[in-house]
């Protein structure tokens, strides 16, 4: 929790001063008016009384992330809104709006980059490390469905032909989706090979003692 | 595009007031030069340039509508 107390000729002016000091937006703060302005001071000698307000900002990961993301999307000339879901282990932020394709990029490249930078920006300002996961218009869910279908289809092909298939490079989360989708296929084994960021999943027929370093 | 680099860099460094982005644009390319305080260099570059590359990816996305090529350089 961060707090600022400022005075100003009007309540609005005092609030603005607090927001500037805290570097946050009005939507995310609690405002408390301590003193109303306008009344004359003692015998009118000391001029009119200034407004005094107290502004507090709950600097939780969700708020900080939204703050950063709204600055970022504005600079990219993208009109976006943010829905925050606070889960036990992470904070999920779903970005909604129109024309958000540029926030996703080719195979989610841009979304990954924005998520990475957002996590850095938030953890810089907070001691605890809460993971922030970004999604754009349900993109991740759709991508997951696509990957599961792909995995099942390729597993069938491996069973049919007996040849292994090497997938294209994916992020750790995406590789995990493939491994998980095929873990109950008893004829199939999956493992990853190569170094980040070119690590790829390999789908092959299970053999007696082949490579099994799954990650 | 200049603003994109500024917003990101300022959110990552310890000295946001020392973040400077110079823009040099021609017909086909936009050249952005990011300067930060010496002790903040690591915070905008990252291990093996991971942060720098993420910044480039985001700036490129922002430049899609514009159509020009964008180059982001980081200088001390």
Q: Descriptors for this entry?
A:
heterodimer; A: 215 residues; alpha+beta; GMP Synthetase, Chain A, domain 3; Ribosomal Protein S8, Chain: A, domain 1; 3 domains; three-stranded antiparallel beta sheet; three-stranded mixed beta sheet; 6 helices; 38% helix; 26% strand; elongated; disordered C terminus; B: 76 residues; 3 helices; 39% helix
Give a brief rundown of this model:
Chain A is of the alpha+beta class and 215 residues long. Chain A has six helices and nine strands; from the N terminus they run βαββαββααβαβαββ.
Give me the oligomer status: heterodimer
Order of helices and strands of chain A: EHEEHEEHHEHEHEE
Largest interface: A-B, 19 and 19 residues
What percent strand of chain B? Answer: 25-35%
Structural class of chain B: alpha+beta
* Percent helix of chain B: 25-40%
Task: Characterize the biggest β-sheet of chain A.
Answer: 3 strands, antiparallel
* End-to-end separation of chain A: 39 Å
Averaged pLDDT of chain B: 93
| CATH fold annotation of the largest domain in chain A | GMP Synthetase, Chain A, domain 3
**Overall morphology of chain B:** globular
Gyration radius of chain B (Cα, Å) is 12 Å
The first-level CATH class name of the largest domain in chain A: Alpha Beta
Q: DSSP helix count of chain A?
A: 6
Order of helices and strands of chain B: HEEHHE
Strand content of chain A: 25-35%
């Amino acid at each position: 929790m961060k707090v600022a107390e400022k005075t100003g000729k009007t309540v609005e002016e005092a609030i603005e001063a607090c927001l500037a000091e805290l570097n946050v937006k009005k939507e995310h703060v609690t405002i408390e008016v301590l003193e109303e302005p306008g009344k004359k001071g003692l015998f009118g000698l000391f001029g009119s009384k200034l407004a005094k307000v107290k502004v507090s900002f709950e600097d939780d990961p969700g708020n900080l992330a939204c703050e950063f993301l709204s600055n970022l999307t504005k600079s990219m000339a993208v009109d976006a809104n943010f829905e925050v879901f606070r889960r036990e282990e992470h904070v999920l932020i779903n970005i909604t709006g129109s024309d958000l394709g540029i926030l996703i990029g080719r195979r989610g490249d841009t979304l990954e980059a924005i998520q990475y930078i957002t996590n850095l920006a938030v953890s810089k300002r907070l001691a605890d490390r809460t993971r922030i996961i970004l999604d754009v218009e349900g993109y991740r869910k759709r991508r997951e469905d696509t990957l599961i279908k792909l995995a099942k289809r390729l597993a069938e092909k491996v069973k049919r032909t007996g040849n292994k298939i090497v997938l294209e490079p994916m992020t750790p989360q995406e590789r995990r989706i493939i491994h998980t989708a095929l873990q109950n296929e008893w004829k199939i084994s999956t493992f990853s090979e190569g170094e980040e960021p070119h690590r790829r999943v390999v789908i092959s027929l299970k053999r007696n003692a082949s490579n099994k370093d799954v990650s | 595009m200049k603003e994109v680099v500024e917003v990101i860099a300022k959110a990552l460094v310890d000295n946001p007031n020392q973040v400077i982005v110079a823009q040099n644009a021609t017909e086909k390319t936009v050249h952005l030069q990011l300067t930060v305080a010496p002790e903040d260099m690591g915070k905008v570059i990252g291990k093996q340039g991971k942060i720098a590359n993420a910044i480039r990816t985001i700036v490129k996305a922002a430049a899609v509508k514009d159509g020009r090529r964008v180059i982001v350089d980081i200088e001390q």
